[in-house]
User: Which sequence fits this backbone?
């Protein structure tokens, strides 16, 4: 954190959490937040004065600042980076240079004559009291305005100043209402109609207004008026309305409106089954002793209804509630379920919201409008001041970890910490808990509640392994689908049921290869092959965004035999449409869900039965609750298994169980077909048996033996530089220094990263396995910061970048 000097006149306005403006350099103005007030001047630099205090009410509360400080320390980043992630950009300030006439300037008597362009600027300043640089460019019609402005400043004709602006802008609606004396006087109104007789268009607008706003029965409605677009229906003329306004019949006025609509609750919470009620009671009694409880309930066991009950109780007690979800794909369905019960006391917060909407959620939490928020990981940063409960749904999800940029935090772990600061309870929910959480529950650190049955009559699905190799040998394979999968799909289609087809995306994207020489297209800036996008006929890099058209012939050998390898969701959709021409297909992946309502549209179509078969990536694996899904197909089970990571087994178990859990959630029993080349793989038997505990035990024994979490803490450090040698040298230097730190640890590497180069930067990785004790971690992180500072100070490493990832996922 930086230290600022408080000028005398601002003393009374200083409050922790208020935003302030500070000048850096000659032109740069930054926003800061007051974190602490003290009188220790910094040693290393001269404190800058605070120019202005922006908030009378602090924007950020002390609990938030404590949370930020913890996050910066634990995840080894700067608190400014946490602030940046925490504040919606609408609350950050932007500064812009502007000019105005120097009040001392006397044009007539000035000793310095102005040239033509300078005159032009001053003329413009007569009409407008201030101009931005952009305005000046427009006035002169040229880009290089700095010399001119500089000259004007030297001639003491203008002043340059910084205008700080909030980026948030409230939504303003233009409304129309009847002039108030008309609204209160029947005779005057009748007279008006007499005058308007024959002017059909004006008459019709007036009649429509009176139909929507009964001014005599409910005069208060006239005060609020009508939105212009509501008043003017198709065929109405805008100019007639203008005439009515001009003649003083209507008046137009502006109001600030909420971007987030008001929603009334539609239903009360469902009655819980005895098993669910038991779970609620058990959670509550364990909360008396423990801050965190793990709710381990199989897919379809009705965890959401349990959440609803707990949320209601906490809200009634006057505390706030936060429900975290791993991705927006998931929010669509659950948000509408929750909204039915909670209406608009519930706020929703995620990245598909505009900045302005996010500021309104933020302010809604501040003002108390939202006592309950559902959101993705960034909602941890909202200005809660009295959380009573934080629920982390699908707590095992790896997307809870922020990968880039810093702070690289894990939202589940951060939620537990935030809960601790608020003295709130944290409930972790999952059908397939992360090994970390399950371990903590077994150790007695967390409470533990289990649900072994699906809600109602629903049963867990039946599994089938479909052997890709065997079908190939028997010539039964059609465009990569086994006969068994085709049969199951056909049966479901015949019964008018729905089908989900899942393809794991991670690390396996389709690419283009030359059949003759084996050439594949690679990114020019990264060491990865380009991904083939059928839709746009493009090759794209998923790391840096680079793209090019698919070549018509091989750039290496000239052959025209180019073919696509690797099955993406797009190809699967296409194959299925060939196999089942009568079925209606849908696809849910990154490509089809780019815009704000992408998820919603696809899920709505699926929910209302307009889609028979939905093909998708990870997005369709969790949380979805559709009653008519009876068949789930896992297109390529082996892809889920082959991942070079100590969590591969855990992840595979979770993914297969989760996606299978979408099938048969009502009365019809579901069926899951896993296509694989290795049906004898042990993990399939374990998933099918649903034996989480046994699986956990075996995997844990290995993790213990090879020093992996939760038995150690991991920190990954990536060293990056545009020059290979420099990157390598820096990584080795760091490694040597780290080896000296006197704590219990293992330092591995440095090795070239799996992807050796990204955006023209070479990457090396070191992995540190630390003893779990808090003291060890603190000592190591403190020394690490010092080491990096020393290395960075060496001229050869000045432009090296180090990325620290604590608890990498
Ligand atoms: N008490 C209840 N009354 C009526 N319906 C219920 C009740 N509890 C659960 N259900 C219904 O059972 C279905 C499954 O519940 P829910 O989606 O909450 O399961 P879940 O435990 O979250 O599953 P998953 O882990 O697979 O997401 C839903 O359709 C839900 O509406
Ligand atoms: Zn690239």
Assistant:
């Amino acid at each position: 954190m930086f230290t600022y000097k408080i000028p005398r006149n601002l003393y009374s306005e200083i409050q922790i959490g208020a935003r302030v403006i500070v000048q850096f350099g000659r032109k740069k103005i930054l926003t800061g937040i007051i974190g602490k007030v003290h009188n220790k001047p910094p040693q290393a630099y001269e404190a800058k004065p605070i120019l202005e205090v922006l908030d009378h009410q602090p924007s950020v509360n002390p609990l938030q600042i404590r949370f930020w400080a913890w996050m910066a320390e634990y995840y080894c980043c700067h608190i400014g980076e946490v602030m940046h992630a925490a504040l919606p950009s609408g609350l950050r300030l932007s500064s812009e240079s502007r000019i105005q006439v120097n009040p001392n300037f006397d044009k007539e008597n000035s000793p310095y004559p102005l040239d033509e362009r300078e005159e032009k600027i001053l003329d413009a300043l007569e009409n407008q009291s201030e101009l931005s640089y952009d305005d000046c460019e427009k006035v002169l019609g040229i880009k290089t305005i700095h010399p001119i402005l500089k000259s004007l400043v030297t001639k003491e004709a203008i002043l340059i100043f910084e205008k700080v602006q909030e980026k948030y802008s409230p939504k303003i609606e233009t409304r129309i209402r009847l002039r108030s004396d008309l609204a209160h006087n029947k005779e005057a109104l009748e007279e008006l109609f007499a005058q308007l007789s024959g002017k059909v268009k004006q008459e019709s607008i007036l009649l429509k207004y009176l139909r929507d706003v009964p001014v005599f029965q409910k005069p208060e409605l006239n005060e609020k008026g009508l939105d212009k677009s509501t008043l003017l229906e198709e065929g109405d003329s805008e100019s007639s309305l203008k005439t009515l306004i001009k003649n003083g019949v209507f008046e137009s006025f502006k109001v600030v409106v909420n971007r987030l609509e008001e929603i009334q609750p539609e239903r009360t919470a469902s009655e819980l089954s005895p098993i669910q009620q038991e779970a609620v009671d058990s959670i509550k009694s364990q909360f008396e002793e423990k801050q965190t409880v793990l709710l381990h309930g199989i897919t379809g066991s009705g965890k959401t209804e349990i959440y609803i009950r707990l949320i209601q109780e906490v809200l009634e007690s006057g505390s706030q509630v936060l429900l975290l979800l791993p991705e927006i794909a998931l929010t669509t369905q659950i948000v509408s379920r929750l909204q039915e019960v909670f209406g608009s006391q519930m706020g929703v917060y995620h990245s598909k919201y505009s900045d302005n909407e996010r500021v309104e959620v933020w302010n809604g939490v501040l003002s108390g409008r939202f006592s309950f928020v559902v959101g993705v990981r960034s909602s941890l940063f909202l200005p809660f001041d009295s959380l009573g409960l934080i629920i982390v749904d699908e707590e095992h999800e790896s997307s809870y970890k922020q990968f880039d940029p810093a702070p690289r935090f894990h939202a589940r772990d951060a939620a537990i910490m935030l809960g601790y600061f608020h003295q709130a309870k944290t409930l972790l929910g999952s059908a397939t808990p992360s090994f970390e959480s399950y371990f903590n529950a077994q150790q007695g650190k967390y409470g533990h509640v289990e649900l072994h049955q699906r809600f109602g009559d629903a049963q867990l699905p039946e599994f089938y392994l479909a052997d890709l190799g065997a079908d190939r040998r028997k010539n039964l394979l059609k465009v990569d689908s086994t006969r068994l999968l085709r049969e199951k799909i056909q049966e479901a289609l015949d019964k008018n049921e729905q089908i989900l087809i899942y393809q794991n995306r991670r690390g396996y994207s389709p690419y283009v290869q030359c059949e003759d020489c084996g050439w594949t297209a690679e990114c020019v800036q990264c060491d990865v092959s380009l991904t083939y996008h059928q839709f746009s006929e493009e090759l794209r890099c998923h790391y840096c965004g680079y793209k090019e058209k698919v070549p018509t012939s091989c750039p290496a050998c000239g052959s025209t035999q180019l073919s696509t390898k690797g099955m993406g969701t797009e190809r699967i959709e296409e194959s299925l449409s060939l196999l089942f021409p009568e079925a209606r297909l849908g696809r849910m992946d990154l490509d089809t869900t780019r815009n704000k309502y992408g998820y919603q549209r696809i899920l709505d179509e699926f929910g209302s039965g307009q889609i028979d078969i939905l093909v998708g990536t990870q997005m369709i694996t969790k949380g979805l609750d559709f009653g008519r899904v009876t068949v789930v197909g896992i297109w390529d089970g082996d892809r889920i298994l082959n991942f070079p990571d100590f969590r591969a087994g855990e992840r595979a178990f979770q993914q297969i169980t989760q996606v299978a859990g979408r099938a048969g959630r009502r009365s019809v029993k579901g069926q899951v077909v896993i296509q694989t080349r290795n049906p004898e793989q042990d993990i399939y038997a374990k998933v099918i048996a649903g034996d989480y505990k046994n699986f956990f035990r075996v995997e844990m024994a290995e993790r213990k033996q090879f020093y992996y979490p939760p038995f150690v803490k991991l920190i990954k450090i990536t060293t990056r530089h545009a020059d290979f040698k420099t990157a390598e040298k820096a990584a080795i230097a760091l490694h040597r220094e780290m080896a000296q730190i006197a704590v219990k640890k293992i330092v591995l590497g440095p090795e070239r990263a799996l992807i050796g180069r990204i955006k023209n930067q070479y990457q090396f990785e070191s992995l540190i396995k630390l003893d779990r004790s808090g003291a060890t971690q603190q000592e190591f992180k403190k020394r690490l910061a010092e080491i990096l500072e020393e290395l960075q100070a060496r001229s050869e490493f000045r432009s090296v970048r180090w990325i620290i990832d604590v608890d990498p996922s």
